[in-house]
Design a protein that fits this description.
Layout: E1 2-5, H1 12-16, H2 25-33, E2 35-40, E3 45-47, E4 55-61, E5 64-71, E6 74-81, E7 86-87, H3 89-94, E8 101-104, E9 108-114, H4 115-124, H5 126-152, H6 155-170, E10 175-177, H7 182-189, H8 193-205, E11 209-212, E12 215-218, H9 221-230
Antiparallel strand pairs: 1-2, 2-9, 3-8, 4-7, 4-9, 5-6, 5-8, 10-12, 11-12
Helix pairs in contact: 4-5, 6-9, 7-8
Length: 231
């Protein structure tokens, strides 16, 4: 972890701040004066479930794994956060601690802003506060959709959801390198590693996908979409 304190008014952090065009110059200065940057290497923990929230975390570059421990040794991956994501947004205004763990999938740059400074700006700036509230709603809707998928879809549907998620949301391509281990993919699909591997092998055998180690190509997008839709 490499920390870079950043107190310059022309800080590049402001350029990546969501909805920064709605913030006044005075508010921007407060953010910059209370902000700092940290770099994280692959698999490094950014923050852990249950840790006190002192700062708001913004993903500036890289991919972040968001996971929650359900019981000892049993984890579920809720989502993959991309640049522009505000981590733990729902926790910031409702809890004193983070309700999940965030860890770096690859090299990640995080911008931190003091929690109180950010909260005060949300309260004082109606337009900015509205956008932040709307983002919280979108985040909660996504998590609800994910949990619904995990609860009600069969494994082929859940695996298809993951494939579409990487292809359409993360990489914008039908061919991509899977950034997670097979165990992590299983945690994202809500299944065991063995069941995940078996399902991917069946997809590969049936020529729905082509899988060569970590490189996955969608051969039949229509079948993947159908499996995802029907569950």
């Amino acid at each position: 972890m490499d920390q870079n304190k950043n107190n310059k008014k022309d800080s590049p952090f402001i350029q990546f701040l969501p909805f920064q065009h709605l913030i006044t110059e005075d508010q921007k200065e407060k953010i910059v004066l209370s902000s700092f940057l940290e770099e994280y290497s692959r698999k490094e923990i950014i923050f852990s479930q249950g840790v006190n929230i002192d700062n708001i975390a913004f993903v500036l570059s890289g991919l972040v794994k968001i996971s929650r421990e359900l019981r000892k040794g049993k984890n579920i991956i809720l989502r993959i956060a991309q640049p522009g994501t505000i981590l733990g947004l729902s926790s910031v205004f409702t809890d004193e601690v983070f309700n999940y763990t965030a860890s770096a999938i690859d090299n990640v740059l995080i911008g931190y802003v003091n929690r109180k400074v950010f909260s005060d700006i949300v309260k004082d700036n109606g337009a900015f506060g509205f956008e932040i509230t709307k983002q919280m709603g979108l985040d909660n809707a996504y998590i609800t959709s994910r949990l619904s998928s995990l609860l009600y879809k069969q494994l082929p549907g859940r695996v298809s959801d993951i494939i579409l998620y990487f292809a359409q949301e993360i990489y914008k391509s039908n061919t991509f390198n899977i950034p997670l281990t097979r165990q992590e993919l299983a945690e994202l699909a809500g299944t065991t590693k063995e069941s995940l591997i078996r399902t991917l092998s069946e997809f590969n055998h049936d020529k729905i996908i082509s899988l060569n180690r970590n490189t996955l190509s969608i051969i039949s997008l229509n079948i993947i979409q159908t499996l995802s839709r029907l569950g």
